[in-house]
Specification:
2 copies of one chain form a homodimer. The first copy, chain A, has 387 residues and is an alpha/beta fold. The first copy, chain A, has a domain of 155 residues: 3-Layer(aba) Sandwich (Peroxisomal Thiolase, Chain A, domain 1), CATH 3.40.47. In chain A, the strands form 5 sheets. Chain A has a 6-stranded mixed β-sheet, sandwiched between helices. In chain A, strands 10-16-15-13-14 form a 5-stranded mixed β-sheet, with helices on both faces. A two-stranded antiparallel sheet of chain A has the order 2-3. In chain A, strand 5 and strand 6 form a beta hairpin. In chain A, helix 4 packs across helix 5 and helix 9 packs parallel to helix 10. The radius of gyration of chain A is 21 Å and the shape is globular. The interface between A and B is large, with 93 and 93 residues. Strand 7 of chain A pairs antiparallel with strand 7 of chain B.
Chain lengths: 387, 387
């Protein structure tokens, strides 16, 4: 840390005082996912018959085929949670945030702002989830008749969202603009599943998390201006994409919805081909170089949990460069919760969050994008879970 | 400016070096809006007859009733632009940004990041527009085989988005984290119109803008850490809201789409009742107080152009508190372009952007939210328009 180049400025440091994670109770096994995909295949075949078309070809049928064994072997996931009907991203976030306010000494009136990371906003265009959460937490917009200053933003960067939001929090807190911020990572990914394609159907899950970020003296900073690194490659945007439903291609017909064209698609082979060598190699190295750190300094790692097998390949490459830290994950029990995956992994491994530990948190995916942060735990972290 | 309280920190100041604005060619008059609403009313009445229901009641018919005269009188809008079929938010932004790169000395390789403000993202969940724009501008993700650091984020805060994004840019640039940032305000609002409700049908329009923000010495800073002020009131979230299509209430049936339940709704009377006295009074005063400024110091104002009549009421209140500056707007010729409205007003009034002028830019709307920034133009601004 002493070697940190001081090209960027801060008045305060930032710590994460507490992390809270919520996951819905409804557990969905790999077997249920496989059964649902089979059901869809039968439905599509029946539709085709009705329209005088032949049955699906072997190649077309393949995208519906999966099993518990296949998912565990190639993805490493055992189950995931799905939110209830009517439970949106705001509800997942509010559960985690209310737990945090109830169980810590953070008062609603001391919260200065909310950076709400999600790729599945509760409402299109308006209202913003950050504003809705303010209300859910009982944070009052007026104080003695005067409007109370409050910072809100909804942000997204596909699977890299959470680290990108943490960087926003760091800029706000380290500059002195705000003191206490809630960084949300919450997603109801179950609604984004295309049930005619195993690529995402086998992985996505729902969860809500909140990280209470607060100002500390610079010498107690967990992070540093040079410890955030990010990358994007928009030319690879189609590898993880929702074809219909955004402004580029609005919903025009019922079949857009019934054929799940407004759901996420993924070219898993391309993700693996591009992301593994990049995050396993030059991206992590660039982040370390910027901070003046080396792989062997790292005690802990948390990677966006899109696929545990893929993450293992990344960590193996890191190990070849001197990494011998502990990898924290959700053990394949919650699926890919997108913006919630890293904070969820941290919350589920509270015992590992020891003072002194140096960590790398690496988020990557749609865009393509990569967001990496390096830091050192310098205070006890309160961890709360309702999973 | 000398009185600015120095509770927040910066290494650099920020200027806006250039603003570029694009609007589609397709002009939509008030008469065409009125005709489209009439057509919808007839369609709904025909549907009701088919289902054995009586015609719409007088009260129900009211939401379809408008005219050129009514819109000009109560909203102040004359026309707006609609993007072409297949033209999404990314295309509106790319047009403005390519114009800027072509006409200024900013090279693609000198752009360090993109803060993409929009409430109508091109794609749901992924890919992010900021990453797509990187590609459209020819900003390369690799440099000599190594991943090139690049900052991306997509952000939204309903109608307050643009000022909130400018604040993010200020934090990134003033801390020294990046040097050249493109702040996008782009929205294809025409796809968010509920054609069975005049509230938004009479106002929304499409546009794309980019502000090139760049680092300057602190003593040339246009802004200051204390010159941004923001507010939210999530309990009023339902006043401007999209009922269906987000994670809180996903699309379940064709009627969700055909009845426009996945489009924006607005309780215009409540917006007026809450926003006008707030922005006209205590919100603007709180922003000025935080900066140590007074109303009479302001030379220029740009307000989110949701409704010119409403804005006039706000400015009248400001005038009562000593404001005697010039108000910049798009003159009701582009409608409410949401995240694009303030930069579009600036671009259309290039002659007023004189060195030395102190300004207030006030964004407000869905959430409810308010985001205000105060500043002083200290360098020539290059303005480009393709409208």
């Amino acid at each position: 840390m002493e070697n940190e180049p001081d090209t960027a400025m801060r008045r305060y440091g930032m710590r994460i005082a507490a992390i809270s994670a919520y996951a819905p109770r409804n557990r969905i096994s790999n077997r249920r996912i496989a059964a649902r995909l089979r059901f869809e295949r039968m439905r599509v075949n029946a539709d085709r018959r009705r329209h005088g078309l032949g049955p699906l070809q072997t190649k077309e049928k393949k995208v519906y085929a999966t099993s518990d064994r296949w998912i565990q072997r190639f993805i490493g996931f055992k189950e995931r949670r799905f939110a209830a009907e009517g439970e949106g991203t705001i509800d997942l976030a509010a559960r985690a945030a209310l737990l945090l306010l109830n169980e810590t000494d953070l008062k609603a009136s001391a919260v200065d702002g909310i950076v709400f990371g999600s790729v599945t906003p509760s409402y299109l265009s308006s209202p913003p989830d950050s504003a809705l959460l303010q209300d859910r937490l009982g944070i009052l917009p007026f104080d003695g008749g005067q409007p109370r200053e409050f910072y809100c933003i909804d942000s997204s960067l596909a699977c890299s969202t959470w680290v990108a939001c943490l960087r926003q929090a760091y800029l706000l807190i380290s500059s002195g603009a705000v003191r206490n911020l809630l960084v949300i990572g919450a997603d109801k990914m179950s609604d984004a599943i295309n049930w005619q394609d195993r690529a995402f159907a086998t992985v996505l899950g729902d969860a809500g998390t909140v990280a209470w970020c607060t100002a500390v003296p610079v010498e107690e900073d967990w992070f540093g201006p040079e410890q955030f690194w990010s990358w994007a490659s928009g030319r690879d945007g189609d590898i993880i994409s929702t074809p219909v439903g955004g402004s580029k291609s609005p919903i025009h017909s019922l079949s857009d919805v019934t054929d799940y064209r407004n759901r996420l698609t993924m070219d898993g082979a391309m993700v693996k081909e591009l992301i593994v060598p990049l995050v396993g190699g030059p991206a992590a190295k660039a982040a370390l170089r910027k901070a003046g750190w080396t792989m062997d300094m790292l005690d802990l790692a948390a990677l966006h949990e899109a696929n545990l097998v893929l993450n293992q390949s990344i960590v193996e490459q890191w190990s070849g460069s001197g990494f011998h830290g502990k990898v924290l994950d959700a053990g394949g029990m919650f699926g890919n919760t997108t913006t919630a995956s890293i904070p969820l992994a941290l919350a589920l491994n509270a015992d590992a969050l020891n003072v002194g530990s140096r960590f790398i948190w690496a988020a990557f995916g749609g865009g393509l994008t990569v967001s990496i942060v390096l830091g050192q735990i310098r205070h006890d972290v309160r961890v709360l879970t309702a999973v």
